[in-house]
Amino acid sequence: MDRIIYKIATRDQWTEAERAGAFAGAPIDIADGFIHFSTADQMRETAAKHFAGQEDLLLVAVDTKDFGDALKWEVSRGGALFPHLYGPLDLAAAIWVKELPLGEDGAHQFPEIEG
């Protein structure tokens, strides 16, 4: 499984996480009982399906090396395995946070992903 996973969050959600010292999740995460993440191959479809047309988003790259059993790979969209974190995200696991702007075509413009 991928060691680096990605979270799409609103700027307000991430600012609140920085104030709190951890990311508890977006409203959908809190309702579902885990934080939804995507792999590099899944994040564009996640943005199109769940964040279409939404501005002021951030893409957060997260290193899973210290997650242990709190990270579970579970079947979701199209039968694919998606990473789900059962517990708050320690901000120390965030490798970087980048803007996720909308392009002229209305699709989100993703930053280059290394590796």
Describe the structure.
The chain has helices spanning 11-20, 27-32, 43-50, and strands at 4-10, 22-23, 35-36, 57-63, 71-75, 81-85, 89-90, 94-99. By secondary structure, the chain is of the alpha+beta class. The chain has a single domain, classed as Alpha-Beta Barrel (ADP-ribosylation fold), CATH 3.20.170.20. A 3-stranded antiparallel beta sheet has the order 1-4-8. Strand 5 (71-75) and strand 6 (81-85) form a beta hairpin. The chain is globular, with a radius of gyration of 13 Å. The two termini are 14 Å apart.
Structure summary:
The chain is of the alpha+beta class. The chain contains three helices and eight strands, in the order βαβαβαβββββ.
Total helical segments: 3
The portion of residues assigned to helices is: 10-25%
What is the fold-level CATH name, i.e. the topology? ADP-ribosylation fold
Termini separation: 14 Å
Count of DSSP strands = 8
Low-confidence stretches: none
Amount of beta strand:
25-35%
Q: What is this structure's SSE topology?
A:
Elements: E1 4-10, H1 11-20, E2 22-23, H2 27-32, E3 35-36, H3 43-50, E4 57-63, E5 71-75, E6 81-85, E7 89-90, E8 94-99
Antiparallel strand pairs: 1-4, 2-7, 3-6, 4-8, 5-6
What keywords describe this structure?
globular, 8 strands, alpha+beta, 3 helices, single chain, ADP-ribosylation fold, three-stranded antiparallel β-sheet, 115 residues
